[in-house]
Amino acid sequence: MLGDNVSPDNAPFLKILPVCATLCEIKLGELVHCQIVKMGFENYLFLQNGLLDFYAKVEDLSSARKLFNEMPERDVVAHNAMISALGKNGYIVEAHKLFDGMGEKKASS
């Protein structure tokens, strides 16, 4: 699409990221992330969740944490992806704290 000067909407990115994660194509996933930012889609919550899920599945905890911490809005999907990433990487206490913090945020809303 991009080679034909056709600008995609944000939908193809949601299809590409899980494939990158399944195939453990970290560099391709990072390129997709860069393209999302370049096209101005970086603040779409569902794309942020897709990226978070990608980084969690390829066990890039550093990128997952950075993305999660920079998200202006976090929903249950984002929390679940981050909790899963932390747990899979042995950060059980931190995962539990994040889980416990989800209820606090709801109570204060």
Automatic annotation (TrEMBL):
<dbReference type="InterPro" id="IPR011990">
    <property type="entry name" value="TPR-like_helical_dom_sf"/>
</dbReference>
<protein>
    <recommendedName>
        <fullName>Pentatricopeptide repeat-containing protein</fullName>
    </recommendedName>
</protein>
<dbReference type="InterPro" id="IPR046960">
    <property type="entry name" value="PPR_At4g14850-like_plant"/>
</dbReference>
<feature type="repeat" description="PPR">
    <location>
        <begin position="75"/>
        <end position="109"/>
    </location>
</feature>
<dbReference type="GO" id="GO:0009451">
    <property type="term" value="P:RNA modification"/>
</dbReference>
<dbReference type="GO" id="GO:0003723">
    <property type="term" value="F:RNA binding"/>
</dbReference>
<dbReference type="InterPro" id="IPR002885">
    <property type="entry name" value="PPR_rpt"/>
</dbReference>
<keyword id="KW-0677">Repeat</keyword>
<dbReference type="Pfam" id="PF01535">
    <property type="entry name" value="PPR"/>
</dbReference>
